[in-house]
Every structure is written in structure tokens, then in C-alpha cells.
Amino acid sequence: MSKKSKIIKDLLYLDTAKAVSLYSQLDEGIITQSQTSEEDSAGLTSNLGVDIKVFQAKIGSNIGGKENQTITRIPHHNLLNQLQNSIDKSESFIDLDLIDQDELTIEELHDKLANKIFVKATGWVNIEDYDRLKKIAERFNAISMFIQECSVEGTDIKEQYGQLKKEIKKQRKIISQYKDRNAKTKDTARLNKLEEDLITLLDENIEGGKIPQYLVDGIQLFIDTFLPNRINFRFYPYDQIPQFEILSNLKRENFVETDIENIIFSFGSRPNLKMTIFGMITSLPSENQDLFDPLSDKEDATEESIAFENAFRGVFRGFEGFEQFVRYSSYPRITTTPLAIYREIEI
Asked: Does some domain include residue 166?
């Protein structure tokens, strides 16, 4: 007789707070702890609550050959299973894994997603950590120069490079001993020229990949303003429809592995293993969509107080253009708030 397989989840991400909020509304509250009492000789067992994560401790004593023990269970990852089971047959839920992608069009797919809230999908993933991008941009030129310097050995510029490095070191030592500001300023200018000559020497003789400083500063400014702490997970459920994408913004505190660098190392920024997302649809843009404009009937207002209010509200409208660049909410992509991201493992 073949053993019946069981599916478990290798969780990467779980929004516990939102999952608890949703499940508690479906099940009239949520059990935060349950206990099971067992008696060895009588085989008496009583169960309360949800079998999720087990912590075991023996209590009491062996009286007349009987030993009592209490097993305490605390809800944890199985909460996700309970929530998924509760909405599995709901009209608001759609499992994209069950849809045949053969000859499926974007329009048909969006029609199936209309009026749905909960979605599950398995596919390829692209991970974008913008804080990581900012850190890389900040250090990119320094790393590039380090690689160039490591390549000097065995080249024709080795001697010239060594001489420049010696002059730079000597000039820095001289400057550090100055107390006269004017003299220090003059020799600092000479140091800057030597450093520029060193960079030019490397760039002209050893291939590098530097980016202009204004671009580094601009990337950092843009991320700090519009994308702070942003981690995008892009899901592609259908190989035959690569333009259809599920976009999710993830909160760092909800990763099961608290350091996302470990996830990037384990899976890569573009994993070669498929993952599953379970979440709530928050944006389903149509191909031609006109959003409600609350200022459309007030633009010609002449009363001074109303005009002043509209002027300020118009500033926010102006910024919407920038925000649209970084929100990435456009047809045929959909946006979700993820409840969980995981790999399904059959055991």
C-alpha cells in the first residue's frame, strides 16, 4: 500500500498580524493556546483548539503506574493552512494554478480576476530590494576601483601606479601635520589632483565600470524619497503569458528569515525554483481606466478659501505622477498585499 503524501510549506514570508485578523473574523476569534492531557495507562486524551506547534512538558507524578502529561500547542504557521482552508470555496477566492494557460489571453485572465479578493499563484519570482540597490550604488565606484587596483599587477602601468600611490600617501601625511589652514588647503588641492590622476590612469588602462556621482546621488535621493524600505516580489505565474505579473511589496519584519540577505544568497535575486504567493488583490487596473477625480468639479472655483485649498490639493496631484513611477500599478499587472510566500513540499 502506497503511503499517502502530505504537503508542507517552506515559508519565506508570513504576515501574521493580517492573517490573524482575517481568520479571527471567520472563526469567531482565534485560539492562542491549547492543551492536550494524556494518561498513559488509560489512554485518555482530550484535545482543544488547533494542532499547530507543539511544546511538551510532563507534570505530576507516577501514581499507581499512571503518569500524566500536558502538551501545550501554540498557533503558528498552521494558522495559514486554517485561513486558506476557510476561504478555499469562497466566491472571493481564485487559484491561478488551476487555470489552464493554453490559449489564455490577458483579457480573459482579467475577467476571471474581476470581483476576486483572495488569490493564490505559483510561478517564477524576481526579488527587488531597493535598500540593497541603494547600498550597492553607494559603494559601486569604490568596489570598481578596488577591482581595477587588483588588476594592476603584471601590467605596463604597475610602476607608474606604484609611484602615484606613494605620492598620495606622502601627501596625506603632510596634510595631517598642517595647522595653517591656507597651507593645508593648497596641499589638499594637490592631493585631489594626484587622486584624479590615479583614477585616470586606471580608467585608461584597465577596464572598469564606474557610474557618475550625480547618478549615484540621484538613485539614493529617489529611493529615500519614494522607495524607503521597499522590497518588491514580482510573480510570473504563466510561462506563456510573461507580461502578466503579480506585484507585491513585502515588509521586512514579516520574513521568516529576518535577514533578507540570507534569502538572496539561498535563492538569488531571480530564483530558479518556483514559489507560491497567497494574498489579497489590491489593484486590478484595466487597459483604459479613468480614475475618479475629486477636483474635477472644483477647478473653476473662485471663492478665495476654496481656491487656496484646491491649490494645495493640486500639489498632491502633481506628485501623483512621481508616485505612479514607483508604484508600478499598470495594466496588465495586478498588485497584491501578500499574506504568505512559500514553497510547497510534498513528503
From this structure: yes
Alpha carbons 20 and 254: distance in angstroms, whole number? 13
Q: What is the dihedral of CA 302, 303, 306, 310, to 10 degrees?
A: 20
Residue 155 structural domain: 134-218
Average pLDDT over residues 282-305: 66
pLDDT digits (tens, 9 = 90+) for 75-124: 567 888 889 998 988 899 999 999 988 888 899 999 999 999 999 999 99
In a domain, 244, yes or no: no
Give dist(CA 55, CA 35) in Å, integer.
10
Tell me how far apart the alpha carbons of residues 241 and 100 are, in angstroms, rounded to a whole number: 12
Q: Is residue 49 part of a domain?
A: no
The cell for 133 is 540597490
State how many domains the chain has: 1
CA-wise closest residue to 201 among 167, 171, 176: 167
Nearest residue to 231 via CA among 124, 139, 132: 132
Would you say 345 and 8 are in contact if contact means Cβ atoms under 8 Å apart? yes
User: At residue 298, does pLDDT exceed 60?
Assistant: no
Tell me the sheet residues that pair with 125.
Answer: 235
Q: Is the pLDDT at 294 greater than 50, yes or no?
A: yes
Place of cell 499547530: 52
Q: CA 113, CA 108: separation in Å to the nearest integer?
A: 9
Q: Sorting pLDDT into bands at 50, 70 and 90, what band is 3? A: low
Give domain status of residue 18, yes or no. no
Q: What is the DSSP-derived secondary structure letter of residue 97?
A: G
Contact (Cβ atoms closer than 8 angstroms) between residue 223 and residue 138: no
Grid coordinates 524576481 are at which residue? 126
* 26: Cβ contacts below 8 Å, ≥ 6 apart: 83, 86, 87
Which of 313, 174, 169, 336 minimizes the C-alpha distance to 247?
336
Nearest alpha-carbon partner for 80 in 28, 27, 11, 143: 11
Question: Using an 8 Å Cβ cutoff, are 231 and 250 in contact?
Answer: yes
**72 beta partners:** 35, 55
